[in-house]
């Protein structure tokens, strides 16, 4: 079975203040150029065809829809983690386990 669907790529920009926005999108050759630029600048690439289909409906400069906030936030957090980054004020150390100090607990 062959897949003749065009290759698509969507680039998002996130400033840490506003919702991520679509900064580039394209099919086939333009998609390959977007991916090449991401590789050149060591931008993590996340592949998900269904998510690309949803984001491809947006215009350049559009903010992602609220329904995708959690999904995109998880991808951004993963990408930041790969690059050793974290949001300002974030403490990456694990929270201490709570202990039950009641009698018999």
Automatic annotation (TrEMBL):
InterPro entries: T3SS_substrate_exporter (IPR006135), T3SS_substrate_exporter_C (IPR029025)
UniProt keyword annotations, A-Z: Bacterial flagellum protein export, Protein transport, Transport
Disordered: annotated segments: 84-105
Example GO BP: protein secretion
GO cellular-component term (any): plasma membrane
SUPFAM superfamilies: EscU C-terminal domain-like (SSF160544)
Superkingdom of origin organism: Bacteria
Pfam family, one: Bac_export_2
Function: Required for formation of the rod structure in the basal body of the flagellar apparatus. Together with FliI and FliH, may constitute the export apparatus of flagellin.
Family: Belongs to the type III secretion exporter family.
UniProt protein name: Flagellar biosynthetic protein FlhB
